[in-house]
Design brief:
mainly beta
């Protein structure tokens, strides 16, 4: 079976989540304050004729999450979707049609009305998890300019998507696809979303854990996978959710693969209300469930530990395993289900709280973050989530506020609120707890992933964060840095046979990257051309493709270049960055070259040919990192 599972199939086949995927990266486009403060309401890239472009991507990909927030007093925009270079929009939708216009029907798409909140609200929020694949390109426009913080202004939002290196297994969205199977899965939150398979039950009735005591609830030898874990507390005390921890060890690893409080494992760290998403949570009757598949190849051991000072009794704990899916999970081609170490509640003054750091190769599938301030009633959810992948300086995912990451547009004032992909629990604004299932838009990484969240508007509040991440991963990295080119450094340019045509000259820039480290000034010298530039790069002959990473100046948007490898045009996409930031001008962006152009080669000649688009006057380049993919 191909591991290039994309579009609707990527969301239908929940059982294939452990499979490590090739040729995919996660991206985010949204209304982020370009100055690094809290003015997260300008959501547009450029104007084209009578439309405002809010999303513009060249190359194959798939939109998995679309969110827009606006005041009821604002005019209702019309969103238009253009695919594969078409002149006319293939699909149009208004916010009032979310939840009813096929295929944007509930629960894959819906609307949410926030509270009055002392006159600040309400806010109308529309959100969609409808997969919208495209083989060549996609633009999304609106007939209104989405900007401004005041009532009557246009609103703000985001789009999360996957970018693919090739169009394999992609059929561009038409709006007439059958979403019946996916809708059936999403309409049954609390039931196992995976296709049925024969399984064995490992059940414990009336399981009591005294303080400091542990109990083994699964001990298996040989290959298999955990299908489901279901539990019931006998008396259901909230403190039990944080005092009892679950520890899972696959294949006799020296360190636990999963280790966290069961409140986090079951998406209910606060436990104030029963909340749950498709993968894990708590049903209204109090039953806890966890349906992420967990493969192992030699052994599996799961135990519970009571770290509290009072006994805890489970009316039932059941773990179900199967060997029926062994053929799906090839060792080394599927990841272990893992959690990051539990991030205990603490405040980080003036810096993001780093909820999790992951090393190796894999993909993030869920995150859990809780926040609490010194006193109740404070608005404490303005902090952006920021995710850096594989060491890139520019965040690959960056939400406009904590609540926006879980697709709610106006704080956490009316819990519980749930949809199949996200939920939150808590009291009005403080404390709050949010969980996000990345069902379609999971976050792939090849060497590391760092997930952080601001404390307040710009790390200016005292907020104690806690939480953990869930992911599939292996320890071995999936890329290797094989070369670097420092443009503007004569020695580095000489080593790489760097040359150019149509040069506009060199210039030196001192500026900042977006994100948590946006106070650190970096000075570098680079070059810009309105023709082409070329260099020779070392790669590993046994590569599965090559990734180019570039440091550039994003003072102007719509930087675009055609990429040639050894004289052959990479036809899958151009290198295109539509966004801009005239304040935090440093950008690191990437271009994945498919293996068809690089496999078996020890070095490649890369030519970047400037293509004029919109406001750009040239292609600029300050530094290149060259990675060989494995």
């Amino acid at each position: 079976m191909s591991n290039r599972i994309r579009g609707i199939a990527n969301m239908e086949r929940f059982d294939l989540l452990p499979v490590l995927r090739d040729g995919v990266q996660v991206r985010y486009e949204g209304s982020i304050d370009k100055q690094g403060r809290n003015a997260d309401w300008d959501w547009w890239l450029y104007r084209e004729r009578e439309e405002w472009v809010i999303f513009d991507v060249d190359g194959p990909g798939c939109i998995y999450n679309f969110v827009q927030h606006r005041y009821p007093e604002s005019r209702e925009p019309t969103f238009r979707f253009y695919f594969d270079g078409e002149e006319a929009p293939r699909f149009e939708i208004k916010p009032s049609e979310f939840g009813s216009k096929v295929p944007f029907v509930s629960p894959l798409a819906d609307a949410y009305l926030g509270p009055e909140d002392n006159g600040r609200g309400p806010i109308r929020v529309v959100r969609s998890f409808v997969p919208m694949p495209f083989a060549k390109s996609c633009r999304v426009t609106t007939d209104l300019q989405l900007k401004g913080p005041n009532k009557g202004d246009g609103g703000w939002g985001h789009i999360a998507y996957h970018a693919y290196d090739t169009a394999d297994e992609i059929r561009t969205f038409t709006g007439t696809e059958s979403y019946d199977r996916l809708l059936e899965i999403w309409r049954n939150v609390g039931s196992d979303p995976k296709p049925p398979a024969p399984s064995d039950a490992h059940a414990a009735e009336r399981l009591e854990l005294r303080p400091g005591e542990s109990a083994t609830v699964l001990e298996e030898r040989g290959p298999g996978s955990v299908v489901a874990i279901v539990a019931e507390l006998a008396d259901g005390k909230r403190d039990d959710l944080m005092n009892v921890w679950i520890r899972a060890i696959w294949d006799d690893h020296a360190e636990a693969d999963v280790e966290c409080p069961i409140g986090v494992f079951f998406a209910n760290e606060l436990g104030i209300h029963p909340v749950g998403v498709l993968s894990h949570g708590r049903r209204p009757d109090g039953t806890f469930y966890h349906y992420f598949p967990m493969p192992y190849w030699r052994s599996a051991r799961i135990e519970l530990i009571n770290k509290g000072e009072q006994p805890v009794t489970f009316a039932r704990w059941e773990t179900r395993t199967t060997t029926a899916r062994n053929a799906l999970y090839e060792e080394g081609r599927a990841g272990y289900f893992r959690s990051t170490p539990y991030y205990r509640a603490k405040a980080t003054h003036g810096a993001d709280s780093i909820i999790g750091r992951i090393a190796g190769r894999g993909h993030l599938v869920a995150g859990h973050v809780t926040g609490v301030t010194r006193k109740p009633g404070l608005i404490s959810c303005e902090g952006d989530v920021r995710v850096h992948i594989d060491g890139i300086a520019t965040p690959q995912v960056e939400s406009d506020g904590s609540e926006s990451w879980v697709c709610y547009g106006w704080g956490f004032p009316t819990p519980p609120e749930m949809n199949p992909s996200s939920a939150y629990d808590g009291l009005p604004d403080n404390p709050w707890s949010m969980v996000r299932l990345c069902s379609g838009d999971w976050y792939p990484f090849r060497s590391e992933l760092v997930f952080g969240i601001e404390a307040g508007e710009f790390n200016n509040q005292y907020i104690r964060h806690s939480g953990a991440l869930f992911y599939y991963g292996v320890d071995e990295p999936g890329l290797t840095l094989t070369d670097e080119l420092d443009v503007g450094n004569p020695a580095s340019e000489g080593i790489h046979s760097y040359r150019t045509s149509g040069s506009r000259g060199y210039y030196t820039l001192e500026s900042y990257y977006e994100g948590d480290d946006d106070h650190r000034s970096i000075r570098d010298t680079g070059h810009e051309t309105e023709g082409w530039s070329e260099f020779v790069a070392t790669v590993h002959p046994d590569n599965a493709g090559v990734r180019l990473r570039r440091r550039s100046d994003q003072a102007t948007g719509r930087q675009k270049a055609n990429v040639y490898v050894d004289g052959a045009l990479v036809t899958e996409r151009s290198w295109y960055a539509a966004d801009r930031n005239p304040y935090k001008r440093w950008l690191e962006d990437e271009f994945d070259i498919p293996a068809a152009y690089t496999s078996g080669k020890g070095e490649i000649t890369v030519r970047l040919e400037y293509v004029q688009a919109g406001e750009t006057r040239a292609w600029n380049e300050f530094y290149y990192w060259i990675y060989s993919l494995k």
